[in-house]
Write a structure and sequence with these properties.
Largest sheet: 7 strands, parallel
Strand order of the largest sheet: 3-2-1-6-4-7-5
CATH topology of the largest domain: Alpha/beta knot
CATH class of the largest domain: Alpha Beta
Helix content: 40-55%
Distance between the termini: 72 Å
Number of domains: 2
Number of strands: 7
Shape: elongated
Order of helices and strands: HEHEHHEHEEHEHEHHHH
Oligomer: single chain
CATH architecture of the largest domain: 3-Layer(aba) Sandwich
CATH superfamily of the largest domain: SPOUT methyltransferase, trefoil knot domain
Radius of gyration: 30 Å
Length: 254
Amino acid sequence: MAQALDNIRIVLVSPKAAGNIGWSARGMKNMGLSSLVLVNPVDYKLEEIKPFAFRAEDILEAAAIVGSLQEALQGVQLAVGTTRRIGKVRRPMYYLREAAPKIVAAARNNAVAVVFGGEQSGLSNEEIAVCHTIVTIPEETDYPSLNLSHAVAIVCYELYLASVSESLPPLLDLATREQVEGMFEHVRCTLAAIGYDKSGGRDLLENIMVSLRRLLGRTGLETHDVNAIRGLCRRIEKVADLLRDQPENPTPGL
């Protein structure tokens, strides 16, 4: 999927804050994108914005600077505009998460550009008109304005996620139902071995097991968790066996 991301260029139209250029490069680097095109950017000194990029200096150094959006889109088969404003000329529009897999699929065999407008007013209707499709990021209605570099990072994240979603390694090694039930039975036997079925009766043991199931059932148990609990049970059983083997009234000093 890295090839698809390699075919996606991020285009910033008239960015006014030099820091946003550096931060955008960093967001791109985090998510595996590397092609940056700047259209009429603010006059900036490369050395001054490198700290904003932090290890994405190579993206800044390789960034293309052009004079028009048409030039930035040269050779592109799919241009995707980004906007938070809705209007009659801003169609077709999709939510970013819905559009990201389609953008990545297109980028497997085509050059794709994702276009961002400047900080003050975003892309104009004329700039939107040269894009084939439009995406928007759903936001809280009380404060819908995103910083340019934040928007770039969010879009790059969704593109990255769409490109690797099928190959991401699992973060959780959840225990099977059989493993969990075996653990609970082990806990029951351990509690019985240390007297919970004698002092208080079987009802006490059953109530404790219900509480443990409720407590441990609130989240998925991993195999490591199940093994740890069963290991604790084995240690308790071993100590209980040692205590049972000791005489009830040992002679002091012996």
